[in-house]
């Protein structure tokens, strides 16, 4: 069938190329020797009026032999035409999408019409009429115009930029100086009755552990690294355990001393300095063992948190295992609760200097601070999580220091006449 069609066309072509006729404008139309029909390119004006489906064609504007003449005509025409506002109108139904946006299809019958939609969070477009937006790398974030990616801000308790660090440093140094002064005063009055009360060696250990607790705050400040992440939790937990163990030893000493005052009591053999020292050593050793297991199984390490805030990277310490972290807190809380319970029981004993009432207040402050710290710690992120822990360390350590040692300092410095064995025995008898 196809062969037949081609045969007919071939036979008719020699007759068609001899055709000669006039078009509607009276021009002679002839085929050339190649059988082609040379025609001019004619430009018409077309005008659209409202409520009309078809345009009205006006008389021809110009006639051209080829496309090159059309280009030359347009170049001359553009120089002669004066456009309103000096801009050439475009055959568009919307403006081009600027950088920071991408094209989106509209519900329109015209396929050339589209809308401009801002790039999503974390994406940019830096070209006009962009089809899509491009996602920034993990360590970068779009600028405010969403045209380029910039490095994310790093967040941690910086010594250089964060005023909160300056506050913590000032408070920690001030408390360290205060603790050193108290240690010096106690050493100067080492052999006096008020210092000897409830074992001056345990008091010295308690003061030293409180001083080290204030100093370990420096491990929480600055940019964290793997070694500081391990040292900060281990040091604070061990120093605090020694402090709470010392308070527990003092409480047990007061409790046993009260029991031993009864005639024929079997508690007399337990009222020794060795008992207090053994309690401090044993309770602290348990915490050290917990820390060793924690570091052996899953030690804390530095990590970059990129998910909490999309525009910044939080440099923080991962605790390794939550069980280890809450085990050291739970053990300290257990010892503090035991100390509080025993001290509360013997707080009203008729003694010349009953330290139990001050231990009760100190453990009340300690427990209140750390119970309030846990929900605050879990509800914050980034540097503020570290700030909550630092605040808890400073507050609880200062509470123990003030509640237990300020009454003794008052007697040593303001009422030295009460710091004698005779006066203390007279007060006890009365």
Mean pLDDT: 79
Helix/strand structural class: alpha+beta
- Could you tell me the number of beta strands? 13
Order of helices and strands: HEEEEHEEEEEEEHHHHHEEHHHH
Q: How many domains is the backbone divided into?
A: 2
Number of DSSP helical runs: 11
Order of strands across the main sheet: 11-13-12
Estimated radius of gyration: 45 Å
Specify the biggest β-sheet.
3 strands, mixed
| Estimated helix fraction | 40-55%
Kindly identify the CATH topology of the largest domain. Rhopdopsin 7-helix transmembrane proteins
Class of the largest domain in CATH?
A: Mainly Alpha
Quaternary form? single chain
Give structural attributes.
single chain, 430 residues, alpha+beta, Rhopdopsin 7-helix transmembrane proteins, three-stranded mixed beta sheet, two-stranded antiparallel ribbon, 52% helix, rod-shaped, disordered C terminus
Written description of the protein model:
- The protein folds into two domains: 101-151, no CATH class; 163-429, Rhopdopsin 7-helix transmembrane proteins, CATH 1.20.1070.10.
- The chain is rod-shaped, with a radius of gyration of 45 Å.
- The protein has eleven helices and 13 strands.
- Helix 3 (163-188) packs parallel to helix 10 (383-414), helix 6 (226-260) packs antiparallel against helix 7 and helix 7 packs antiparallel against helix 8 (322-345).
- It has helices spanning 2-16, 67-80, 163-188, 193-196, 200-215, 226-260, 273-297, 322-345, 356-378, 383-414, 421-429, and strands spanning 20-22, 28-30, 41-47, 56-64, 101-105, 114-118, 123-124, 134-135, 140-142, 149-151, 153-155, 301-305, 312-318.
- The strands form six sheets. It has a three-stranded mixed beta sheet with strand order 11-13-12.
- The protein has 430 residues and is an alpha+beta fold.
């Amino acid at each position: 069938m196809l062969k037949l069609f081609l045969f007919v066309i071939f036979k008719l072509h020699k007759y068609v190329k001899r055709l000669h006729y006039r078009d509607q404008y009276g021009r002679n139309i002839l085929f050339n020797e190649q059988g082609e029909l040379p025609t001019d390119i004619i430009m018409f004006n077309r005008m659209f009026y409202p409520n009309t489906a078809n345009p009205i064609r006006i008389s021809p504007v110009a006639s051209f032999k080829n496309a090159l003449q059309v280009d030359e005509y347009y170049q001359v025409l553009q120089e002669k035409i004066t456009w309103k506002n000096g801009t050439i109108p475009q055959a568009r139904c919307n403006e081009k999408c600027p950088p920071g946006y991408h094209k989106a299809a509209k519900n329109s019958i015209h396929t050339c019409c589209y809308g401009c939609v801002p790039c999503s969070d974390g994406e940019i477009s830096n070209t006009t009429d962009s089809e899509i937006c491009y996602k920034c790398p993990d360590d970068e974030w779009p600028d405010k115009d969403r045209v380029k990616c910039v490095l994310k801000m790093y967040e941690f308790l910086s010594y250089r930029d964060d005023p909160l660090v300056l506050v913590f440093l000032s408070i920690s140094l001030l408390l360290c100086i205060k603790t050193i002064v108290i240690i010096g005063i106690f050493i100067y009055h080492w052999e006096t009755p008020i210092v000897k009360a409830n074992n001056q060696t345990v008091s010295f250990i308690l003061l030293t552990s409180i001083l080290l607790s204030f100093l370990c705050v420096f491990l929480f400040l600055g940019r964290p690294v793997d070694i500081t992440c391990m040292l900060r939790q281990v040091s604070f937990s061990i120093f605090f355990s020694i402090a709470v163990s010392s308070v527990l030893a003092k409480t047990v000493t007061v409790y046993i001393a009260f029991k031993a005052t009864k005639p024929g009591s079997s508690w007399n053999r337990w009222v020794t300095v060795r008992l207090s020292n053994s309690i401090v050593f044993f309770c602290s050793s348990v915490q050290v063992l917990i820390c060793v297991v924690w570091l052996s199984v899953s030690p804390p390490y530095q990590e970059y948190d990129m998910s909490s805030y999309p525009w910044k990277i939080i440099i923080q310490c991962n605790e390794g295992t939550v069980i280890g972290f809450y085990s050291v807190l739970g053990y300290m809380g257990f010892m503090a609760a035991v100390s509080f319970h025993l001290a509360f029981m013997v707080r009203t004993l008729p003694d010349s200097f009953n330290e139990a009432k001050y231990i009760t207040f100190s453990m009340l402050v300690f427990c209140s601070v750390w119970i309030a710290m846990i929900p605050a710690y879990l509800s914050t992120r980034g540097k503020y999580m570290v700030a909550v822990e630092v605040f808890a360390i400073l507050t609880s350590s200062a509470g123990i220091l003030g509640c237990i040692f300020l009454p003794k300092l008052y007697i040593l410095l303001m009422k030295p006449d009460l710091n004698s064995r005779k006066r203390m025995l007279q007060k006890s008898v009365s």
